[in-house]
Design a protein that fits this description.
Belongs to the peptidase M42 family. The protein has helices spanning 2-9, 19-29, 137-143, 169-185, 207-216, 257-269, 287-290, 318-333; strands spanning 34-37, 43-48, 55-61, 66-72, 78-83, 95-98, 105-108, 130-132, 149-152, 157-158, 163-166, 193-199, 220-228, 248-251, 275-278, 298-306, 314-317. It has 340 residues and is of the alpha+beta class. The chain has two domains: 2-64 and 167-333, Aminopeptidase, CATH 3.40.630; 76-151, Elongation Factor Tu (Ef-tu), domain 3, CATH 2.40.30. α1 crosses α4 (169-185). The chain is globular, with a radius of gyration of 21 Å.
Length: 340
């Protein structure tokens, strides 16, 4: 699992440019399921009885946050706009890498404190950020084009206590959980169809979930994503969410109460650790799109606890990924929430 997570997090796949990660994931899933990539770039893997009347959909998103190149000045410095929710506070000394066949690295320009009057102490907005690739304009223009995408550079690293840190764990850890789930149920005799949707553009417009769920037309769906774990200075309900205490089962007005209740009962029955995530409105996940597809899809959300979301140093516990996969597999083996 650790190696799978590391491999997933090393691949590009900024929103709208998910081809490399889609190809990798399709190859992984093809060992357990009939797998295709649709015209929008979604990976769709089908298990169980393909001709069954009932379909359970499992979704995780392929894309990661990043940047799109908007201009290059005469000195070779590059301007970008954000693709997804970039935290500008972490940009001042970040290393970025192009998502190209021959990746090149650049650094975000920052003012030395010796030359600052204090105005630079606040995070600069994205339209004030410049990227330095260390090359003159002519060389930069050979390697970087307007419309190219960049993302945070960072090698995944193992921390102590079964934890890892990497950029893009949102939502590559969700993908890892679904690949593991496919392995767990791949040889089971199921009387219904299970479809894994690895969807594009969640961090921008949710395009992949909208079109993929419309095509699949499932009876019930579970979106697998990340949510907030406790860290210093976090207060409120997320102060009580811990790493290594299991996946978070969401309870929300937009979700199916029957599905949330069934996930909770399965976790209790199978002794799979879990945590509650009550949300008073929409969930901020693909479930918001899937639940209103066509005439509606009963939906649930299972999230992997994560620290430092949307930064180059996101942190998870590997056991939470394994337990997410186990919970999903047991839910599916039991027939889902509507198995009568």
């Amino acid at each position: 699992m650790k190696q799978l997570l590391f491999d997933l997090c090393r691949i590009g796949g900024v929103s709208g440019s998910e081809e490399p990660i889609a190809k990798f994931c399709a190859e992984k899933l093809s060992a357990f399921a009939d797998t295709t990539i649709d015209k929008n770039g979604n990976v769709i893997a089908t298990l169980g009885n393909a001709n069954a009347d009932k379909t359970i959909l499992l979704d995780a998103h392929l894309d990661r946050i990043g940047f799109i190149v908007t201009s290059i000045n005469e000195n070779g410095f590059v301007k970008v706009a954000s693709c997804g929710g970039i935290d500008v506070r972490v940009l001042s000394d970040a290393v970025l890498v192009s998502c190209s066949d021959e990746p090149v690295k650049g650094v975000v320009c920052c003012m030395p404190p010796h030359l600052s009057d204090g105005g630079e102490d606040k995070a600069a907005p994205i339209d004030k950020v410049w990227i330095d690739f260390g090359l003159p304009y002519e060389k930069v223009a050979e390697k970087i084009k307007i419309g190219d995408v960049l993302t945070f550079y960072g090698e995944p690293k193992e921390l102590m206590n079964n934890r890892i840190t990497a950029p893009a764990l949102d939502d590559r850890c969700g993908i890892a959980a679904l690949i593991r789930c496919a392995e767990l149920i791949g040889k089971k005799e199921l009387s219904y169809k299970v479809v894994i949707l690895l969807s594009v553009q969640e961090e921008t417009y949710g395009t992949g979930a909208k079109t993929g769920a419309y095509r699949i037309n499932a009876d019930e769906a579970i979106a697998v994503d990340v949510s907030f774990a406790s860290q210093p200075d976090v207060s409120g309900q997320y102060a009580g969410v811990e790493l290594a205490k299991g996946p978070m089962i969401c309870i929300s007005p937009i979700l199916s109460k029957a599905m949330s209740d069934k996930l909770i009962s399965v976790a209790k029955e199978k002794n799979i650790p879990f945590q509650y995530e009550p949300i008073s409105g929409t969930t901020g996940t693909n479930a918001d799109h899937i639940s209103v597809t066509k005439s509606g899809v009963a939906s649930a959300v299972v999230s992997i606890p994560q620290r430092y979301m949307h930064t180059p140093i996101e942190v998870i516990d590997i056991s939470d990924v394994e337990n997410t996969a186990a919970l999903l597999a047991e839910y599916i083996i039991g027939g889902g929430a509507f198995n009568d």
